[in-house]
Design brief:
Radius of gyration: 23 Å
Number of domains: 1
Structural class: mainly alpha
Number of strands: 2
Shape: globular
Strand content: under 5%
Distance between the termini: 49 Å
Helix content: over 70%
Largest sheet: 2 strands, antiparallel
Number of helices: 13
């Protein structure tokens, strides 16, 4: 099954912009929900694009879905190599973003925070001696093993992206020879256990795994074409409605459970399941999800996710500093647009550099492997 489908890539783009909006809009307009326009947006489906938990749920569900698919093409012996490759790919972009921030901090062009008030805006510039070592420590260790970052706050999620991927890959390999219905039953039981333990992000990853198994069940037990024509659009519509509903906190009997995020993960599972069946049976793409612009954002989603906060705390803070005495909603809109455009441009450059470095490293490793194979001594030479 092809993993990087165009419509899924476009959904990545929506996710990245939603996370950006979740951080930037409340920072520039703290009381935006109290305005008439804000209330309309909040209570409409557009509010999904200003939510942090919903796109996080999507990225983690997609991780489980993608790694479960990958597990079908590898053996248990290749798992250590796949884990190292995934760690390096995540770590490389993380290090690039953290290094960028450490350079900005070192030169005094990074705001620790800023406060927007009706009468005046306050910007607190960070004064620190961050260096390459701090960026490397953050990228190589703190982000993945402590789930935190001293430089880029949103990188807390990468811990779950990494270990969730390993969990999904190992689980699918262990269940590889089991019948799809048994696989689904095991995943559902473990998922329910994670729900009771409030292991939110493991729940999301396993939800993504469940999509892969359910697709196998539909393929093997049912007429996929007939099922697709009858039910796939319903799955997508129900998923979208659940995303809208989960914008409002849903209280549950479980204490301290962030129920709307569980609901968001379930909604994304329905959307991804219905979307995959729809594509396989009818070969159609939603016009909006097939949009080239959103696919472009999707390809740069990792960099957008990592760089939107640094751009907001540099470019956004600088512009806010310039208009701090006369700040108004008009200034907020202009600064927001500048932050979005700047983030996309910088993220595109980072993505290009990231892929360039990856290609060079892969070519180097391929040459090293070639040299080891063809320059190693023969049995006769070792006598």
């Amino acid at each position: 099954m092809k993993y990087r489908k165009q419509w899924i890539e476009a959904l990545r783009g929506y996710g990245a912009i939603a996370v950006l909006n979740c951080h930037v809009i409340p920072a520039l307009i703290p009381d935006w929900k109290k305005t008439i326009i804000g209330k309309i947006i909040e209570f409409s489906p557009v509010g999904i694009l200003i939510s942090g938990g919903i796109p996080i749920a999507f990225f983690l569900v997609l991780t489980g879905f993608g790694m479960a698919n990958k597990a079908s093409t590898i053996t248990i012996r290749k798992v250590p190599l796949e884990v190292i490759k995934r760690y390096f790919r995540l770590m490389l972009m993380t290090f690039m973003c953290c290094l960028f921030v450490s350079i900005l901090i070192r030169h005094g062009f990074y705001a620790q925070s800023f406060t927007v008030r009706p009468e005046v805006s306050i910007v607190r510039w960070m004064d620190s001696s961050k260096n390459i070592q701090s960026a490397l420590y953050d990228a190589a260790y703190r982000v993945f093993f402590k789930g935190a970052s001293a430089l880029i706050g949103p990188f807390w999620m990468l811990r779950w992206e990494f270990f969730g991927a390993v969990l999904a890959m190992l689980a699918m390999l262990l269940l590889k020879k089991v019948q799809p219905m048994t696989q689904l039953g095991v995943i559902m039981i473990v998922t329910a256990l994670f729900l009771c333990l409030n292991w939110l992000y493991c729940f999301m990853v396993l939800g993504g795994m469940a999509i892969t198994v359910m697709l196998e069940v539909v393929n093997s037990k049912l007429n996929i074409k007939e099922f697709g024509q009858k039910h796939c659009k319903k799955l997508i519509i129900v998923g979208i409605l659940l995303l809208w509903v989960c914008k409002y906190y849903v209280y549950t009997p479980f204490q301290q459970i962030r129920s709307y995020e569980y609901l968001a993960a379930s909604a994304w599972c329905l959307i991804l399941l219905g979307g995959n069946i729809l594509e396989e049976t009818q070969n159609v793409h939603a016009v909006v999800l097939g949009d080239k612009c959103m696919q472009f954002l999707g390809k740069n989603s990792f960099a957008i996710y990592g760089l939107h906060m640094p751009v907001m705390l540099t470019v956004g803070a600088y512009l806010l500093w310039q208009v701090k005495e006369v700040y108004s909603i008009k200034h907020a809109i202009v600064i927001y647009l500048v932050i979005v455009v700047s983030t996309i441009i910088i993220a595109s450059a980072f993505t290009w550099l990231y892929r360039y470095i990856l290609r060079k490293v892969e070519n180097l490793l391929r040459r090293c492997k070639y040299c080891l194979l063809y320059t190693s001594p023969s049995p006769r030479d070792t006598r």
